[in-house]
Amino acid sequence: MQISGSSALVVGGTGGLGEATTRRLAAAGAKVVVADVADEKGRELEKELGIRYVHTDATDEESVNAAIAEAKALGPLRISVDTHGGPAQGGRLVGKDGKPLPLEGFRTTIEYYLTAVFNVLRLSAAAIAETDPLDEGGRGVVVTTASIAAFEGQIGQLPYAAAKGGVVGMTLVAARDLSPLGIRVVTIAPGTINTPAYGKAADKLEQYWGPQVPFPRRMGRSAEYAQLAQSIIENDYLNGEVIRLDGALRFGPK
Questions:
Q1: Would residue 97 count as lying in a domain?
Q2: Is position 209 within any domain?
Q3: How far is it, in rounded angstroms, from Cα 119 to Cα 126?
Q4: Is 160 one of the annotated active-site residues of the chain?
Q5: Domain count, the chain
């Protein structure tokens, strides 16, 4: 599938993974709409790259549809990449004080890291389905973001691991559901990615995680996520797959 000339929605496009993806798709000729809640950063990207920014709550149907409408106005919407984040709560299932993990924190984490992904996936797919088919009947692709915590969640990560595991579980089913429409679905499961969000803690995190990665012995980079996202978009035979991006890292219990 050709990126140039297509409209692309990047949800969470002001964050580390999302910004790198936005920059890469814009450079490849896509008409990008960034959907996020970081208005100041979004406006900066809009001015710098000539993309569109729309304040968007990924958990809200009306909000996501408004961003999709902006993307459709720019051209045929064929690309949706979801990298959004949100509040995540954790802790041991039963703490050292004997208290169970609060239910509300679990619900909040699931809402942002699973339900909102489903929301973006379903609405993006419905919009992509309205475009004219290309060669071999393809209409577009949705890229979602999980985490290797879906496979090796660490102590205290139960809500997050459950949410990301749900994203993994949706991937093949969504690809099968959307196959008659010519829409592909692929999930990226990053390991430890050093993004600007870590701020001053980035160096300490690099010193801690870098040596644990088999090769290359460093944390991942946002640009590597964006590179993989572009490869997924352009390769029509990638579908229904979860791709780990982790340098062969496997999380231990802690």
A1: yes
A2: yes
A3: 11
A4: yes
A5: 1
CATH number, position 26: 3.40.50.720
pLDDT tens digits for 158-204?
A: 999 999 999 999 999 999 999 999 999 999 999 999 987 787 788 89
Residue pair 161/193 in contact (Cβ under 8 Å)? The answer is: no
Backbone phi and psi for residue 142, each to the nearest 5 degrees, phi listed first: -115, 125
Question: Could you tell me the two tokens for 103?
Answer: 């239910």
Distances (CA, A) of 90 to 21, 68, 78: 28, 32, 36
Q: Is residue 254 part of a domain?
A: no
From the candidates 53, 112, 113, 160, give the one annotated as an active-site residue. Answer: 160
For residue 249, being part of any structural domain is answered with no
Full strand arrangement of the beta sheet holding 140-145: 52-55, 31-36, 7-11, 77-82, 140-145, 183-190, 241-245
**How much is the pTM?**
0.96
- Give the structural domain span for 75: 7-244
